[in-house]
Amino acid sequence: MTPEQMRDASLLELFSLEAETQTQVLNAGLLALERNPTQADQLEACMRAAHSLKGAARIVGVDAGVSVSHVMEDCLVSAQEGRLYLQPEHIDALLQGTDLLMRIATPGSANVGPQDIDAYVTLMNSLLDGNEVHAQAAAPAFDVSQLLLMPEPAPPQVEHRPEPELASEPAPRSQRRSESGERVLRVTAERLNSLLDLSSKSLVETQRLKPFLVTLQRLKRMQNNSLKALDYLSDQLKVLDLSHDVQEALSDARRILAESQHLLGEQAAELDEFGWQAGQRAQSLYDTALACRMRPFADVLVGQERMVRDLGRALGKQIRLEIEGEKTQVDRDVLEKLEAPLTHLLRNAVDHGIETPEQRLLAGKPAEGLIRLRISHQAGLLALQLSDDGAGVDLERLRRTIVERQLSTASTVAQLSEEELLTFLFLPGFSLRDTVTEVSGRGVGLDAVQHMVRLLRGAIVLEQTSGQGSRFSLEVPLTLSVVRSLVVEVADEAYAFPLAHIERMRDLMPDEIVQLEGRQHFWHEGRHVGLVAASQLLQRPASQSDDETLKVVVIRERDAVYGVAVERFVGERTLVVLPLDPRLGKVQDIAAGALLDDGSAVLIVDVEDMLRSVDKLLNTGRLERIDRRNRHTAELTRKRILVVDDSLTVRELQRKLLINRGYEVAVAVDGMDGWNALRAEHFDLLITDIDMPRMDGIELVTLLRRDSRLQSMPVMVVSYKDREEDRRRGLDAGADYYLAKASFHDDALLDAVVELIGGART
Prior knowledge:
Blueprint lengths: L2 H33 L4 H21 L2 H18 L7 H18 L8 H16 L2 H7 L50 H19 L1 H29 L6 H50 E3 L7 H11 L3 E7 L4 E3 H22 L3 H6 L5 E11 L2 E8 L6 H10 L5 H6 L2 H5 L23 H10 L3 E7 L3 E9 L4 E9 L2 E6 L3 E7 L5 E3 L2 E6 L2 E7 H4 L12 E8 L2 E7 L1 E9 L13 E6 L5 E5 L1 H14 L10 H7 L2 E5 L3 H13 L3 E5 L2 H10 L4 E4 L8 H10 L8 E5 L4 H10 L3 E4 L5 H12 L5
Helix pairs in contact: 1-2, 1-4, 2-3, 3-4, 3-5, 4-5, 5-6, 7-9, 8-9, 10-11, 11-16, 21-22
């Protein structure tokens, strides 16, 4: 490639960058002029943008860009001079020209032919000449389907740099600048992620110097004690008539020890200073790298206001989008993942929320609908509120749709609260549209939004007032790379609870724990809060701490509040998130991993998943009791029984009978589930059915008797089969007791259990 060709390539890239900037100015200005056509500052800004694009296109030699921007400039100048009053058709044509300019300036986009340019120039000239009827006929019909396409990321633009030997003729460089006037450079996302990863590792590694410093200080103290001991020994030996050589040796030992102590003190001081400086530099490096990932929320809003306006006009609606807090800084990855759900919500508000002008006037509202988007920081989270002043959700129609789709019965739906009804809108495939249109009706809106928000470890809530509008509230982390957490200890292992989900920390005395409806609670801010053990949720051994007080983390996810008992509070930490190996799949109750200051690993808790685990334990009746005063004794003396049966009725009957007698009971729904439970936990007795899916009782007992660790466990078979050959088959497999369900009664089961393993406690 010749220097001239490289120069041309750089100029084209420069024109593309300028077109991107100026079309944003045009889009914003034209939308403002649609509301106030005589706004002088916006007319001036749009005219200058069109003029700049015309000059840039002429320099680069893009004749199509010159033609388009020239007629746009003429239209805007006419409006400035008062010869033309901008009507909606003028705004439509100018916006069409803006899109055309962006297509012309974007490398690799669909080609713009001469016929397209000629048609647009003819359209603009007809509007300027006042032939509006012809202009409207010539204008191409608006294609709503274009708004349904999700915005695709722009293709990476390759910088064309001159070779070293051609440095005498450097290509012009883009002097793109930020709002503050600083130069803006392009860096690939991969390189930025690598920089952040290296800086975070550097920060962690510098913290590992602290244990070395502590060791040196301890060694210095040991040497000091050794010196004192040597001095004492020397004093005691003075009464003896020591030879000159011995005295010399003692003196040398004292001198060498004193010198080594002095040297050790100097090295420890230097290491302390080096560690502090390295820590400061690593922290500064990490903060700078992290700041590079942060972008204003406005970056994801490019084109959203235009999309709302165009889609509204296509549906015959007048809609205005107001944005507050667009300069809020958010992590780049979060922004990219928020673009799709935000587009879904805006389209939903335009199509389902805002009424037609006629309907709004009849309801006493202004003809123009309002959609308001607020962005802010709240408690370490990014909070988004998207509200509209539309009709809200028709609850009666929603009830009818639920019944028609056979999602629930009419009697049940009639008793549902408004909050419960609105949750149906987030179900896959659910839609209030009777027919499928280009905009909606396919039922892929709100469920997709909820899914994408949950992938961001966030939450979404819908509130509405019939006739007055609806409001979506989203909360997502500010960044996916770091998380402020409370590090706790559970079964001598470190776990981290994100601070965004923690309401408070507190110490509970045994007397503050109360029994309410068979479950443990404590009083917190005027309400009873359920208490669960972190060791049970995380499937770790129970704590053996002798501390009478109970360390509790109060977590909240929307309306769900629970107290999670842990062993110890380690402290607050800012952790660099390390994703788990994808081969592990979704680990229950765990979101990611991280490294502490000393290089040890810590698991970050998935609070939403943990609350689902709590609900599961509550529904199955397997929630363990926490009692500081007699916990250890109870754990040592209480006997555990595993009940395996595919019948829910039989399973629950046996569980309740045994629990009431004082036994600790776990349940399994089939042989395979029971076998996994036997290998994972300790049990004193197995009670199993014969006929079950996946693995029957005979196979389960056979596997148990073959296992050296489990073969001594007593086994009871409870089956509907009461024939002698069935009984013999069960006993031959290794069962110790066979009980027929046909003759089953409470005392028979309990007597058999007592016969096999004795009472619940010893």
